[in-house]
Amino acid sequence: MTDLAGYILLKVSDVTRAQWALRSATSLARTVRVKGRPKVQNEGTLIIGDRVKLVSTVAALELAVGLGGKLEIGDRSFINYGTAISALSSVQIGPRCLIGTYCLIMDNAFHRLEPDRRMERPESGPAVLEENVWLGARVIVMAGVTIGADSAVGAGSVVTRDVSPGSVAAGVPARVVRDL
């Protein structure tokens, strides 16, 4: 087998694996590719766009959509291994986004802060990554946050408030450190 034939066979198997691993998706483009075995739980709406690549090799990629929730992944986005995305209400990942290893994106904190109410679930707020957003490794995106188009978030940052388009944010909590 030539190198080209082997390469084509690997790409075909990535697409076939995607069709199987993401069979619970509401809408799945035919060109989605998956490496490894992601963990997918869909009780709402899961939409995955054209030429999305999901990597679940070293550590499982987790996609969880709760009852009535919506997770949308835009065209040509890339999500690396170990990332967990939880959508109880709405998580939107725009086209051409790059999400690094072990990131966490969620639209709900799952517990209230008040000591006597910690077993109660708070209201969800949409988590939105606009077009061409880059998240470094181990970034956490909290509920109610919008990260503007063409922005980047530094590794290990915790995004607790909106990030303006075309900027670099870093830190805990993440703050805009410069414009691009």
Structure write-up:
The protein is mainly β and 180 residues long.
**Number of separate domains:** 1
- CATH superfamily placement: Hexapeptide repeat proteins
Overall form? globular
Structural class: mainly beta
Task: Give me the strand/helix succession.
Answer: HEEEEEEEEEEEEEEEEEEEE
Largest pleated sheet = 8 strands, mixed
Q: Roughly how many Å is the radius of gyration?
A: 17 Å
The proportion of strand residues reads 35-45%
Low-confidence stretches: none
How many individual helices? Answer: 1
Mean of the pLDDT scores?
93
CATH architecture: 3 Solenoid
Per CATH, the class reads Mainly Beta
According to CATH, what is the topology? UDP N-Acetylglucosamine Acyltransferase, domain 1
Give the neighbour order of strands across the main sheet.
2-5-8-11-14-17-19-20
Distance between the termini: 46 Å
Determine the fraction of residues in helical runs and give it as a percent range: 10-25%
DSSP strand count: 20
What's this, in brief?
The chain is mainly beta and 180 residues long. The protein is 11% helix and 35% strand. The mean pLDDT is 93.
List the helices and strands and how they pair.
Blueprint: H1 3-21, E1 27-28, E2 33-36, E3 39-42, E4 45-48, E5 53-56, E6 62-65, E7 70-73, E8 78-79, E9 84-87, E10 90-93, E11 98-99, E12 104-106, E13 127-129, E14 134-135, E15 140-141, E16 146-147, E17 152-153, E18 158-159, E19 167-170, E20 175-179
Parallel strand pairs: 1-4, 2-5, 3-6, 4-7, 5-8, 6-9, 7-10, 8-11, 9-12, 10-13, 11-14, 12-15, 13-16, 14-17, 15-18, 17-19
Antiparallel strand pairs: 19-20
